[in-house]
Write a structure and sequence with these properties.
Length: 123
């Protein structure tokens, strides 16, 4: 399966870096159909980027399973050091078993209802 959108990963370590980034050590495995054993496809550090993703990642615990959402991989070559750096980034994810959130939390009344509910007033 590897490091891709929709892959399930196990969290091994979480290190908050700032308000907009959290470093997560994770691994992704797949089951070998012939042997029945799990084989590791990916293991490494992934940077959760963005305020929402970083905050959510900072609350992860060792052993949590997550489903990767939007991810990206970049490489950069340093000519002077003759080294290639690979960066894994995660912009969204869900906890395993967590229902995807709907953007609207409750239905909004239509404009023409006429009655105003005091519970919905901001003051």
């Amino acid at each position: 399966m590897g490091f891709r959108t929709g892959a399930y990963a196990k969290v091994w370590e979480v290190t908050p870096m700032s308000d907009t980034s959290t470093k997560v050590r994770m691994s992704i495995s797949r089951k070998n159909k012939q042997s029945g054993e799990y084989e590791q496809d990916f293991s490494g550090f992934v940077l959760a980027i963005g305020t929402a993703a970083a905050k959510k990642a900072a609350s992860l615990k060792e052993g949590n399973r997550i489903k990767l959402g939007d991810v990206d991989v970049t490489t950069k070559y340093d000519k002077e050091k003759k080294v290639t750096y690979t960066n894994f980034k995660m912009f969204s994810f869900e906890l395993d078993g967590e229902e995807p959130r709907d953007s609207s939390t409750e239905p909004q009344p239509t404009v023409d209802e006429g009655e105003i509910d005091d519970n919905r007033l901001p003051f």
